[in-house]
Amino acid sequence: MGNKKKTSVAVAVDVVKNAPLKTKEYEKELRRLHVELVKLQQWVVAKGLKVCIVFEGRDGAGKGGTIKAITERVSPRVFRVVALPAPTEKEKTQLYFQRYVPHLPAAGEIVIFDRSWYNRAGVERVMGFCTPEQVEKFLDGAPVMEKAMVDAGIILLKYWLEVTPKEQERRLRDRINDGRKIWKLSPMDIKSFNLWDEYTLARDAMFEATDTAWAPWFVARSEDKKRVRLNIISHLLTQIPYKEIHVEKVDLPKRKIGKVKPTKYPFRYVEERF
After folding, report:
1. In this protein, which residues make up the domain named Polyphosphate kinase-2-related (predicted)?
2. What pLDDT, on the 0 to 100 scale, is given for residue 6?
3. pLDDT for 54-71, tens place per residue?
4. Which of 123, 157, 163, 202 has its CA at a distance of 20 to 30 angstroms from the CA of residue 64?
């Protein structure tokens, strides 16, 4: 690979104790950040930027909630979330990075990967879905792939959400007991529950090999879901230079209603239970 000038990644070990963020305070700040994300969206479209954001972390680290906080007020035509399933038998025979390439951003797009090609450095390595040789080839090849992405004009941001064993267990148990979240708990989560140390070794090896000057890793403490969402949105806004695009003020014109008589068609209205 040659000489890779790396940035330093400080993996969160000790949890910084902060007072719980009040919901009203959180919603106020999130609203402000959502306005900035809309400005970023307009800038990306206007300037034809290509942005790729990767989210990685252990099960229950808060990736999905953070991605939802980022995307809930922007256009899905600009912010596109990619969460690929397990590879098919055909994909297993292809170049490892091949199935990810079609999802990379075109001009005017921000693509968010909810887990990514780094599956090979994490779950595939720990669960034995690939050989040690394949892992080494991936760790050698990932910086090359990412250098090519950056050289092609893609703004690449990589986030690792760090959670403690205690908080991870609390969240996984919450999924078991909450009918709204049970779908998040996969058989793989159960199998990997007792492999904390193995995942730690895999994470550290991944950082060592792929934390480069052109594609550094950013680590976010995710003990507090509200804080990590605000912290990550704030951070990514600083990583993509943007300006507010002037938009002409829109006034709704007067409209004339009443020339068409109401239809007698027997519409099937939804039952109003509430």
Report:
1. 22-245
2. 58
3. 999 999 999 999 999 999
4. 202
